[in-house]
Amino acid sequence: RSVIVVGPELKLHQCGLPKEMALELFKPFVMQQLQERKLAHNVKSAKRAVEKMKPEVWDILEDVIKDHPVLLNRAPTLHRLGIQAFEPILVDGKAVKLHPLACTAFNADFDGDQMAVHVPLSMEAQAEARFLMLGHNNILKPQDGKPVMSPSQDMVIGCYYLTIENPNGKGAGRVFRDPEEAHMAYTLGQITLQSPIKVRIEREFNGEKGTKVIDCTLGRLIFNDALPQNLGFKKRECLEDMFELEVNQLCGKKQLGNIVDMCFRSQGEHKCALVLDAIKALGYKYSTVGALTVSVADIKIPPEKEQMLAETDEKVAQVNELYQEGLLSEDERYMRVIELWNSCTHSLRDRILPNLDPFNPIRMFTDSGARGSSAQVSQLAGMRGLMASPTGKTVELPIRANFREGLNVLEFFLSSHGSRKALSDTAMKTADSGYLTRRLVDISQEVIVREEDCFAARGTQVRGVQVTALMSGKQTIEDLEDRLRGRTAAEDIIDPATGEVIVHLNEPIDYYKAKAICGAGIKKAMVRSVLTCRTENGVCARCYGQNMAHGGKVDVGEAVGIIAAQAIGEPGTQLTMRTFHTGGIASGEDITQGLPRVEELFEARKPKREAVLSDIGGKVSFQQIKGKNELVVTAEDPTFEKHDYVATLILPCVEDGAHVEAGDVLYKTFVAPGASKTVTVKAEFAGAVSIVRTEGKCELTLTPDDETLTAQIFHSQIGTLCVSDGAVVNQGDVLVKDIQVPSTQKNISIKSDLHGKVSLIKTETDLIITVDSVDPVYEQKTYSITYGSRLKVQEGDVISAGDVLIEGSINPHDLLRILGPKAVQDYLLKEVLSVYRLQGVAVADKHIEIIVRQMLRKVRVEDNGDTDLLPGSLVDLSRLEEANQKALMEGKRPAFVKRVLLGITKASLATDSFLSAASFQETNRVLTEAAIKGKIDPLIGLKENVILGKLIPAGTGMRRYKGIEIRENYGF
User: Fold this and answer.
1) What is the DSSP string of 934-958?
2) Is 206 left (phi over 0), alpha (psi -120 to 50) or beta?
């Protein structure tokens, strides 16, 4: 390993390797070549030659490293882009040279970072490094499919300087015959790069040459020379766009990102790599030409600052006066003061940038997105504002000064609070984020793409989920186009206006199709999702959709679970480090909502301030009982009760003329009418049975086999019916009287529990009386209201089941109980996405869906029916389906289960693989339990195979790829 330095002259797939380091790494290869070329007689002399670094050794090293990629890795490796392959170039010195565009992926900078170099030895390893891990295969982020290799810092400011327009520039408005003439004028100092000029452009259109004079600047002409002119920004098939420059606008970081994105989509990865290198070269060249520097004079303080501070002071004084008079509580006063100073800081911030000249270096840095933000400029030229104390509470004394004016001692002391807190937080939260990533990897590591299409393989109809734009109140968290991109359609998506099919069933939705769907005004679409995938121990390629890292179809064997865990875990460290950069300024949203919230959701914990959800739909009302406030939800639709009464309380369990043994049951009697409490009458001796039924009576005679015993006779009186069919009875009316129960010899009668209508059904032995209630019963649920809780409903509101009654964070377990798994999936997905989106991090839905699917894959067996499942045990959904199917085919009772939501730690420990669970947490408990139960590990996931030292069953290690061999002579 060695320190890294920047290598701006490198191509995207290259890295600079120090000569001595390369010699040490490739020693065996060099020694082999020395022997082959007869420059050394044996291994020992070859080794000696290498150690003495003879001149011929360097020539051989050059040959050896050609076409032999090396892997560079920077710790911490938070996602798969943390290890990439490069072709080595020998360099002097002792530092590894890294391509500047690869820095974002490694999260590297050149302030002393170190990187490790690895050499892939076998042909297979070299092939994988070359075809899967080389620079141009890693242009897009697996997280969300956006480019990770997009120009930053110097490159951005160079391109911004090149494409900005200065209407008052030297030679503005001049007309040139062709771009060459404009270049000449620039060389002679007659125009600047930024002067608006007119240039005649010549292009070929349908085989004929045409010309057009266009408005542009020389800088933009130079910039477009580096770009292919068919990226898709201009419609080249229409004549007026034919001669336009592909990119004739000001280019900051965002626009450059779009250019890379479009280039990757329309030209492919190889061309994109070339364009990136061209933009890099241009950016570095013109950031040098522009030579932008910052001086204190560039920081211009808005003239209105003093007046704004005075006004805010006045308002704060008024608030304090109200507090003194007792019209405000301490909390209200504090909140109002904070609000006033925040709005003062913000309005000051909004006046700084417009106050600066467009060519002011500070403004150019922030506008282009090369460095800094409006918040940082606000600290330089506005005011530092409110700071957070070590406890995280905002101190209500703002720092009025900015860095240009300088802070006084008291202000400096106040600001050091926040700065220190930010640094200590960073250290603590990084550990939390790493632990979260570890748990995520553990729960999802066995999710691998195992087949092409799960529904086709099982011959069932395709199921999907409905996708709409994600909203939080009126704010859009993620629009429909972003959510559709990279998914597979679960039905034909039809243009409502023309009736044309935009996307067919099972067709992937790419960038252009997603645009077309949203362009047609469609607001929701059915797509396939891993949440509805039927594949066991993994997912299928169709339900997963596109591989975000290259925009193509996902391969069978791709370890999508690990990719998902990394996609969620990697920005976690960014979420944690957010407070670090602004120097602990008290901003409205602190990171505490960020990472801890994600953890709370994935662990399915009970939230701190729990929201109360309504179990039923209906109308809201309030009542007070014994001084306690209660909220009552009354169902809108009444239920009508119905009670059945069995009047024949005798169920003979033997046939007339049957032969019984001693202890056999002769008949059962229901003691409590309508209930299932029974008295069983058993035969005291073996003998023959005869039953005589007469109206209202039943006589059962048992004649013994042993002639010394006397026969037993059982009488039972069915009783007198007191109602006729169709009569209406009140509660407590007698339906049947004088029923004689043999065992108790009591006469009992059946009374109605309801006010309702009677209907009679006669069977051979029974008379069933049904009473249908005529009084509607409205279901009610009561919720107690604690002091200080905020209600989300008012008297008379009509709500649905699952609506929030009392404000707070929803407990996902309640949601599962009331509304079922679909609601929980949607809730978790939306909440996690919004945390990341608020921090400005994009994560594709499918990654979060994979984790949520793993949390919901178990069910708890409530009643095992006739299956071999244990009541109360947790089983996989697939295992349950299998057991139930088997039971139904054999005509037995299936198991009855309840869906459960497990947090990621619990779900990891509940996995079928005891090796994976033991290597995660609670090793002793997991292993003893596995030993007691005699568990067998199916070796499905990655961890358990790594533990045993086997090839992992993902990628080329999958069984279906085992037969492929790599030969050295390609025959190209």
Assistant:
1) T------SHHHHHHTTPPPSSGGGS
2) left
8 A C-beta contact, residue 966 and residue 127: yes
Total residues found in the chain within this entry: 972
What pLDDT is recorded for position 718? 59
What dotted CATH number matches 154-290? 1.10.274.100
Residues 146 and 285: their CA atoms lie apart, in Å, by 26
Instruction: Check residue 343 and give its pLDDT.
Output: 93
Average pLDDT over residues 842-868: 91
Task: Give yes or no on whether 154-290 and 612-639+777-806 have one common fold.
Answer: no
How confident is residue 68, by pLDDT bands cut at 50, 70 and 90? very high
DSSP 370: S
Query: Where would I find the beta strands (DSSP E) of 509-575?
Result: 524-528, 538-540
Q: Assess whether pLDDT exceeds 90 at residue 277.
A: yes
CATH number of 858-961: 1.10.150.390
Nearest-angstrom CA–CA distance, 799 and 776? 20
The CATH-assigned architecture of domain 301-355+373-407 is Orthogonal Bundle (1.10)
Report the C-alpha gap between 571 and 723 in whole angstroms: 75
Pairing of strands 475-478, 470-472: antiparallel
Architecture in CATH of 2-138:
Beta Barrel (2.40)
pLDDT band at residue 622 using 50, 70 and 90 as cut-offs = confident
pTM, entire model: 0.81
**CA gap 734, 769 in Å, rounded:** 12
Burial (CB count <10 Å: 0-12, 13-18, 19+), residue 634: middle
Burial class, 521, CB count within 10 angstroms (exposed 0-12 / middle 13-18 / buried 19+) = exposed
Is 60 exceeded by the pLDDT of residue 807?
A: yes
* Domain 612-639+777-806 annotated CATH 2.40.50.100: yes
82-91, 506-515, 735-744, 892-901: which has the highest mean pLDDT?
Answer: 82-91
Domain ranges of the chain: 2-138, 154-290, 301-355+373-407, 444-609+809-841, 612-639+777-806, 642-773, 858-961
What is the spatial distance between Cα 211 and Cα 286, in angstroms, rounded to a whole number? 29
Cis peptide before 228 (omega within 30 of 0): no
Q: What is the pLDDT of residues 581-592, one digit of tens each?
A: 334 444 433 334
Residue type, 948: L
